[in-house]
Each structure stands twice: as structure tokens, then as C-alpha cells.
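Observation: inputs received (chain + S-adenosylmethionine).
Thought: call the complex predictor directly.
Action: predict_structure
Action Input:
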Amino acid sequence: MKPLIDKHGREHTYLRLSITDKCNLNCSYCNPKNSKTWEKSKEILSYEEITYIANIFLACFGFKKIRLTGGEPFVRKDVDRLIESLAALKAKNAFELCATTNGIMTKGFLKHFRNIGLDRINFSLDSLCKETYSKICGKNALSDVLDSIDEAILAGFQNVKINVVAMRSVNSDEILDFVNFAIQKNICVRFIEYMPFSNNGYDKNLFLPIQEIQTIIHEKYSLDAIEDSRSVAMNYRIRGHLAQVGFISSMTNHFCKGCSRLRLSSSGILKLCLFSKNSDDLDLLSLVRQNATENQIAERIREFVLNKKQSRAEMEEIIKLKNNKMISIGG
Ligand code: SAM
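Observation:
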């Protein structure tokens, strides 16, 4: 085992696996209903291929965390089969198996997922108000998500997190409601800055910088910083409570310096950054299907990661990028 380090000295230990680009929601900031150029269904990695690749990251590079994402990971058929086969890899290499979900299909299954080896779960939830939720996500499903969150807490998932994409005039009036929700459930709420992607109809007037969100929260609560060098979020404990609040300032204050993550799409494309160009990607699906050995694949990944850029492009450039859909990359 030799750590995967790029030329800027960053060690990579975290793999985000987008296991499908299909989603059961049409969130306005991610996959709006009228987004015209829906990709043709691509060949996707099988569960056996995903497990094979995941094992390379664990055994060859000592990865510590794998997160299932999408699209919506829980819409892929028999996802428990994948969770079981990834969880079985923990016997040889210790790591955390996590998932990010919109929490609709998980309802009724959280205990089961916990039992078969899922360690952590994050829920995307952009409004606590039924009407606003439906307006943002395109489906009247808030109560299912809230039930899933309660089930996850009951099932014993540690450090359950809620991810909120904060948007001016859309859900910006709910900042304190979300903090109160976190306090009530003893969980962590994280506010994410709204980012531009291909076909998400990015509207810069909706952009709400993290600093403004912090000002709103500080009027009512005191926050104590929690040091965690591995996290992309700035995390705080809400003074007097067990709950936490986090801020992901991807736009106003990027965290490339401490980046330890790589992203693998459902079609087997390895990405160095959420905002990297397609021409910079590595096609692992082809390598696996050409029967490259584990060592050959590991070497290609090592060379690829070595040349990772020091930081992401500037916002003006990111806005112009084509073909980097969040729904294919998985956040
Ligand atoms: N379907 C799953 C879910 O809803 O969590 C996983 C995939 S989703 C693409 C992963 C994360 O990306 C979610 O937390 C979502 O809110 C976030 N996301 C998507 N588009 C975004 C955007 N334009 N700006 C900021 N965050 C975004």
C-alpha cells in the first residue's frame, strides 16, 4: 500500500462513487425538468466492476472513505447488493461506507442499510416547508424525507447530516428553521453555496454567500469551531446544544488546498475535481473492460492524480464549462 499523493503534496483518501445518473427528483439547481440535453443512457459500471475498482483504492492506496452518490443512489436496482459487497471489503481494509441521498427511496429501509454495513448517511433537504420543497425538487415528498431522517437516527447512524443548497429568495427565509431543526434532532445541518453546472439554469441572482448565512445565524446562536482538517465544510457546534452547523463555501472560499477526494461517475469516468474538464478525465471503465490488471490500473490512477491542478478554475470560467452536470458527477 502506497498513499496516492499529487504533486502539490495532497494525499487522497476519499472516493465518491456516483452509481447512477438517474434521479427521482428534478431539483431546480441540479436537474431542472426542462434541462434540454439529457444524456443518452450510457454504459455503466456493474456492481462487480464498482467493487473491483473500489478495492484498488482501498488496497493499493489505503482509502479511508467511500461515498455512494448519484443521481440518486437508491434508485439503482438492488443497491443493497452493492452495499453488501463494498461492506465486505472492510474485512481487509478499514474504511467508512457512506451515502448521500434525497431520502425518498430510503424510507422503510434505513435499519436494513445500517445492518448490511452502511456507516453514515447524509440527506439533501432544501426546505422544511411542503410547498417550497415541492417547488424546488419537483415532487411532493417532504414527509418521506423527514421520515427517513427520523429512521436513520433511530437506526443508530452517527452524525446524520442534512445538506441544504441555500438560495436567495427561494429558501433563504428558512436558515434559522434549519438550525432549529438540527437542534431538535441533535444532528448536523450544512449550508451549501449554490453552484453553476451545465444545464442547471444557473441564476446568479439566487446566489447566497455563506457569509450572509453566518450573519443570520449569529444573530441568534453562538457557534464554536470544530477542527477537522479532512472536511470540506467549516463545522461548528451550536453553543449549548449537541447539534452542529456546517458551511460549504465552494464558490466564495474554495477548499482545494485540503482536497482529498476523487470522483468516479456511473459510466466509469474518474474525475480529479467537481469542476474539471471532460478532457482531463480518466476512463476506468475501458481499462477494466480491456482486462487491465489491478497493478496496471493502480499505476494509471497514480500518474493521473499526480498531475491534479492546484486549485479549481475561477467562477467565471466554471460558469462557461460544458458537460459537467452535477447529476452525472454526484456532488
Ligand atoms: N441524489 C442525492 C442527493 O440528493 O443527495 C445525491 C446526488 S446530489 C447531486 C449530491 C449533492 O449535490 C446534494 O446535496 C445536492 O444538494 C448537491 N447539489 C446539486 N446541485 C448543486 C448545485 N448547483 N449547487 C450546490 N449543490 C448542489
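Thought: report the result.
Final Answer: The first strand starts at residue 4 and ends at 5. The longest helix spans residues 47-61.
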